[in-house]
Amino acid sequence: MKPAFTDPVLDAQAGFRALMEAMARPGCVQQVISPPDLPEGLEPAAAAAILTLADAETPLWTDAGEEARGWIAFHTGAPLVAEPASAMLLLNTGATMPELATLQAGEDETPQDGATLIRQVAGLSEGSGWRLTGPGIAHEHRLCATGMPADFPAQWRANAARFPCGVDVVLCAGAALAALPRSVALREGG
Amino acid sequence: MTDPGYNFAYLDEATKRMIRRALLKAIAIPGHQIPFGAREMPLPYGWGTGGIQVTASILGPDDTLKVIDQGADDTTNAVSIRRFFHRVAGVQVTTRTAEATIIQTRHRIPERPLTEGQVMVFQVPMPEPLFKLEPRLAETRRLHALGDYSLAQVKLYEDIARQGEGGSAYSHPVMVNHRYLMSPSPIPGFDNPKLHMSPALMLFGAGREKKIYAVPPYTSVVSLDFDDHPFRPVRAPHACAACGSTTSYLDEIVTDDRGGRMFVCSDTDHCAENQMARKAAE
Questions:
Q1: pTM (2 decimals)?
Q2: Phi/psi of residue B261, each to 5°?
Q3: How high is the mean pLDDT of chain A?
Q4: What is the ipTM of this complex?
Q5: Which one of A13, B29, B158, B170 is separated from A40 by 20 to 30 angstroms, measured CA to CA?
Q6: Distance in Å, alpha carbon of A181 to nearest chain B alpha carbon
Q7: What's chain B's Rg over C-alpha atoms?
């Protein structure tokens, strides 16, 4: 079994601050501290996000391999669920992304029950790509994520239209992560 | 030095994770109140149990913490909380607004403009802005879901009809991101405009009521008002007796029993900075 955070308290705190900054400033790329040795298919940022957020109270769905599933179950105690629709946290490492519309979005009175989708992508960079506007962004922020489904902007529009219900997305690449909270508006860049 | 008898920042890791998850959702849904399992803290309700749990969940060893109580760094509540975190987390503490990365506050926002690197943590006694108008929480949840804030508008209308102006000098409700009505915690109306499009992240914790909510940076925060009766932040029409500031929020201090009074800055750090600047200029 591969180890988790070297310092479970302070590394989780650093991981959370990266996630909090990412969520508060949508599209801003943050760096995280990673566990030293990761199971196959898991990259540092996604692994740190899972260790920071998951525990026995968060039903978790993942398409990662057997080693990663065992690692998550052992270190976080999160119940692994078979259906994306019943998960609170989703860790998506494969090429296909679960449709946002099929995930838990919360109810009008409890929009906080909307799921968090953590997706590993090939690359994240600022300054080009999507044009993001909304809370947390002074004017406009640009984020380029490589390896996202072609219809993601359309899926995101439908997700944002359900506000305050909806799904929040954390994109991870290597040791970098950026977030798209449901409140943010996304246009394809030109 | 950190007290080895406690986990870093006092709370256990499972509690921090639960609060952290609530905080992320609170940021994603600006102004929406999220219930959380508030723990019993080593200080009584009303002294900042909500704020202290939020601070404990976000605090790291590289942070510099400032704690203010009604603008002052040197009152019992502020001194106790600062000492608490110095003991259980070993973090740097400061009274200078400019040096702080996390500012836990009871009922004020510092005068000095906040920056992108700072996080404000508000202690909130009553998170529900409709509480005096609708006592049933099941009903207020529904009103928030529907975005139906007519009760608050009627209350404001009645205040204006009776008194010619809005009736709340503090805790004046705000609309966040044009969607949720939110209590800004009992900050004076004077501070409400500082919430609007602030570069800093604002987190709110209510320990007794077990609610967390947030305003992300650069988010529209508009005090509830009417087009023909725009919201006006009020400050006492005096200059600070200590530093001479005519723009800062003032506390009225009664000096004797013959009606004597003076007005001084509520923000002690801001006042001290002004006095230093004035001394340097002389």
A1: 0.97
A2: -155, 155
A3: 96
A4: 0.98
A5: A13
A6: 5
A7: 19
